[in-house]
Structures are given as C-alpha cells and as structure tokens.
Amino acid sequence: MKRRNTPAKEAVLELLVKSQKALSQDAIESQIEIAVNRATIYRVLNSFCEDGIAHKIVAEDGKQYFSICKKCKHPEEKLIYHYHFRCLSCGTIECLKTPVQYTVPSGYQVEHANCLLTGTCKDCNTNS
Amino acid sequence: MKRRNTPAKEAVLELLVKSQKALSQDAIESQIEIAVNRATIYRVLNSFCEDGIAHKIVAEDGKQYFSICKKCKHPEEKLIYHYHFRCLSCGTIECLKTPVQYTVPSGYQVEHANCLLTGTCKDCNTNS
DNA sequence: TTTACTAATGCAACATAATCGCGTTAATAT
DNA sequence: ATATTAACGCGATTATGTTGCATTAGTAAA
Fold first, then answer.
1. A122 CA to chain B: closest CA distance, Å?
2. What is the CATH number of the domain that holds B108?
3. Are the C-beta atoms of residues A57 and A27 closer than 8 Å to each other?
4. What is the Cα–Cα distance from A15 to B13, expressed in whole angstroms?
5. Is B5 in the A-facing interface, judged by CB distances under 8 Å?
6. Which positions in chain B touch A125 (Cβ < 8 Å)?
C-alpha cells in the first residue's frame, strides 16, 4: 500500500512541524488552513505514526496528542523515548529533551514508553 | 465531607488489594462480588485517589486504571512515582519498583507523573 | 433506640474521543 | 487518456467517563 500525497497530509504535517508541539485532533482541526474531516485527520496522523514520522502521546486526559520530533531519532534510527510535559495552565504538550531511563525486571520486554509529566511550564510560572 | 464506609467501597478496595494490579472500571465491574453501578465505581475510585489510597494510571489505550500500591508511599508520606508496565499480550498492568527519575528545564514545576511502559511481561515471554 | 443530617447510590442522560463502513473522489503509474 | 486503488467525507457507532437528581443508607447526636 503505497502512500499518496494529499492536501490533507501536507497541511497536517506543516501544522505539526510549525507548532513544534504535540497537538490533538481537535486542535489540528481548528488550526489547520484547509477543511479536513475529523476521521481523515485521525487517519493521516496514524499513518504518520506508522511511517515513523510522528509519535503519539496519550495524556492523562485520555486524549491522543501527536507530534513531530526530529530529536526523537537516534543515530541508528532507533526511537529514543523522552519525557513529555503537559502544562495544566496553558495545555501545551511539549517534548522534553530528557530521555526516559528505566530498568525492568528480567524477562520483561519493552516495546514502547509513554511518559508524561504534568505541572506548570516555564511561561506560566513566570507570568503568574 | 467525611467519608462513610459502604459495601461498594469495601468490595472495590478488597478487589484492588487482592488483585495487586491496576484495574479499569469495567474489569472491576465484572470481577466484583456485588453489583455496583458504573458511576459509583468511578466515584469510589476517585475518592480513593483523593484520599491517597489509590493512584490512577492512564494507559495508551486512553483508559484509566487504578491500583493500590503500598510501595508508592515514601517515608515522608510523599508519593513516589514509579513506572507501570502494561503487557500487550495479557493486558495486565502492574506497578514496577523502578522509580521514575527525571529532570526538567528550570522554571518547570512537576505535579504529577504518568509513566507507562508497554511490551510483554515475564509470564507471557516464558510461556511462548 | 430513635432521629436528623447528608454522603453515597442507582439510573438516565449527557459529553467527548475515536473508529468504522461505505460510496465517492482523486493521486499516481501506465 | 485510462485504470487502479489510496484517500476522502459523511454518518453511524462504540466506548469511556461525568453529571443531575431523586432515593437510600451511614453516622452521630438526642
């Protein structure tokens, strides 16, 4: 199943790259230049994840957030998991550079890590 | 608002303690001895969280899981965040002893950490 | 034990997130 | 220009979690 380039994909990708943050479907739908159907946005985002272009974060609100992050890629093309930070004040979700480090009991095999810190970000702390 | 003891609370608590795992509302509803309404289960679970008895984990499936974990309590009564592990094969979510360690850029204030690793657990790895 | 107060419950309605089926549209290669 | 089929929009559907409200039942005081 070869991918095709479409206006929807380009617009979503551009928005994600431009915003530098993790965005939810509804944020994308409201910020995107062109009109794109909800289901399509999800399909586009999931295809990005499948292709390793974007990654998905599930926040404690149960919602999915997607982001493009070039720093995620390790030299040997392996994804390095890093912490994400969700600001309770402004809602922003950003990728921190802090890598996720963990050890698991022997016999356990880790395939994915979803690590989210919540609190107040720098901007919201200094502005209050 | 003082808490009252009720059959629903006792049953949910007993189940959580017995199972030693993080359970979702629907798992609790199906495993619990007595019939308890869905909304009540959520209210009970949230009250446990407020009282510091249980903690809530949001998995990458967007669902909330609740668990009792005595090891969570630090000597000075402060909650220590630890990793959780979700097995993609058997669905079990368990608390790992691995503490969550992170550093955040200056100006950031962390209030909560939700860290979940997914993969295959020991049992599922050895049985395959 | 009886009474009063109100936390807790069940039920139904509601809100939201995400997925899916299906007929149609349009990107790509020939 | 044509054929193929990935991608799309739309509507329906599923699932999770919350909320309002009338009723029930803990708990403490009389």
1. 4
2. 1.10.10.10
3. no
4. 46
5. no
6. 107-109
Residue A24 lies inside a defined structural domain of this protein:
yes
Locus of tokens 């979510």:
B93
Domain range spanning residue B78?
A: 7-126
The footprint of strand C (CB < 7 Å) covers: A 4-7, 24-26, 38-39, 42, 46, 58, 62-64; B 1-4, 6-9, 35-40, 43-44, 47, 62
Inside any domain, residue A1: no
State the pLDDT confidence band at B76, using cuts at 50, 70 and 90. very low
- Whether B108 is covered by a domain: the verdict is yes
User: What's the number of domains chain B is made of?
Assistant: 1
- pLDDT tens by residue, B80-117: 678 899 998 888 899 888 788 889 999 999 988 989 99
Q: Share the mean pLDDT of chain B.
A: 89
Tell me whether residue A43 is in a domain. Answer: yes
Tell me what the mean pLDDT of segment A60-72 comes to. Answer: 86
Nucleotides of C under 7 A from a protein CB: 6-13, 17-21, 26-28
Average pLDDT over residues A38-58: 96
DSSP states of B33-65 as a string? SS---HHHHHHHHHHHHHTTSEEEEE-TTS-EE
Q: How far apart are the first and last CA of chain B?
A: 51
Tell me if chain A has a CB within 8 Å of the CB of B79. Answer: no
